[in-house]
Amino acid sequence: MSRPSRLQRQVLSLYRELLRAGRGKPGAEARVRAEFRQNASLPRTDVLRIEYLYRRGRRQLQLLRSDHAKALGAFVRPRGPTEEPGGAAALGTSPDDDDGPKSPLDDTGAPEIRPDGR
């Protein structure tokens, strides 16, 4: 097996640092492991993406090390009971195609004028 590149060594070092910083903070270690597993399949040639994720991980490490961080979580949009993975965007439709409530502002940013004058 070939010797790891500088970037590979940096990524492994970041992984260890994130795990150490996450000890004792609920959800941190599991989140770190899941994030790294999710991106483990990136091709080695995708250096720009790897460097971007590395910088993002460095920022998260700074946040985890700060005294203000008590836990680590993720923002997840819950799926509706009939919503498929991929959602309406995968089918080529936009959320504006339905007859549900719309924004009071139209595409220009001006208030929408309703037929009843409100």
TrEMBL record:
PANTHER family listed in its UniProt record: SUCCINATE DEHYDROGENASE ASSEMBLY FACTOR 1, MITOCHONDRIAL (PTHR47046)
Coiled-coil residues: none
Family membership noted in the UniProt record: Belongs to the complex I LYR family. SDHAF1 subfamily.
Domain Complex 1 LYR protein: 9-62
Positions of the UniProt region annotated as Disordered: 74-118
CDD domains in alphabetical order: Complex1_LYR_SDHAF1_LYRM8
GO CC annotations on file: mitochondrial matrix; nucleoplasm
Protein name stated in the entry: Succinate dehydrogenase complex assembly factor 1
Superkingdom of origin organism: Eukaryota
Subcellular location: Mitochondrion matrix
Annotated Pfam families: Complex1_LYR
GO biological process: mitochondrial respiratory chain complex II assembly
Stored InterPro entries: Complex1_LYR_dom, Complex1_LYR_SDHAF1_LYRM8, SDHAF1
UniProt keyword list: Chaperone, Mitochondrion
